[in-house]
Amino acid sequence: MSTKYKFNNNTGIYFVSFAVVGWIDVFTRQVYRDLFLESLVYCRKEKRLNIHAWVLMSNHVHLIISSRTEGKLADVMRDLKKYTSYKILKEIRESKNESRKEWMMYLFAKAGKENSNNTNYQFWRQDNHPIELDAHSDMFAQRLNYIHNNPIEAGIVEKAEDYLYSSARDYQEGNGLIEIDVLQ
After folding, report:
1. What is the DSSP string of the chain?
2. Which pLDDT tens digit goes with each residue over 54-103?
3. 13-172 in CATH: which number?
4. d(Cα 2, Cα 22) in Å, to the nearest integer?
5. Model pTM?
6. CA-CA to 176 of 20 to 30 Å: which in 36, 71, 119, 161?
7. What is the distance between the alpha carbons of residues 17 and 64, in angstroms, rounded to a whole number?
């Protein structure tokens, strides 16, 4: 079995990326961003997930994470994606204001039917692409910069710390949306 793109070391630090199926721009709406961030905070507090860096873009997420326990990071990621997909799909389905509801639910249903792991809808793509990092390596610094510069590359902001949905402001100003675990 391949060990590429797997959480092989439960005490390791990992860069992970995951996207909405079809790269649908779900997170352009505040309500969906809030649901995702609430889940991330919950995982940090209750599942003992260390969040070293993060960015939430319109249709994907990048994280640098580790665990404060011997628990499996793969299980935490599975739970995070499962819960957020359930909550966000429910919110979309029940929304009276979501102008894209029919279109999005059609695409989520289509993706769900094409994947034997699902019964109805699929929100997140299956992969996370975890890459283990050494906290004091050039690769760690490169991934941290990649995460924080994602909104700049997308043309959303000129300075990384100006993007609200990222840990860049924690590294610059110390006043981000969620508490992060800065490595020394």
Report:
1. ---TTS---TTSEEEEEEEBGGG--GGGSHHHHHHHHHHHHHHHHHS-EEEEEEEE-SSEEEEEEEESSSS-HHHHHHHHHHHHHHHHHHHHHH-SS-TTHHHHHHHHHHHHHT-TT-SS---B-S----EEE-TTSHHHHHHHHHHHHHHHHTTS-SSGGG-SSBTHHHHHTS--SS------
2. 999 999 999 999 998 877 899 999 999 999 999 999 999 999 999 999 99
3. 3.30.70.1290
4. 26
5. 0.92
6. 71
7. 9
Distance CA 29, CA 13 (A): 30
Structure tokens at 125: 């793509």
What is the Cα gyration radius of the chain? 16
Residue with token string 């992970």: 16
**Structure tokens of 171?**
């590294």
The answer to whether the Cα torsion of 90, 108, 34, 17 is positive or negative is: positive
pLDDT in tens, 13-61: 999 999 999 999 999 999 999 999 999 999 999 999 999 999 999 999 9
Read off the tokens for 4: 């590429």
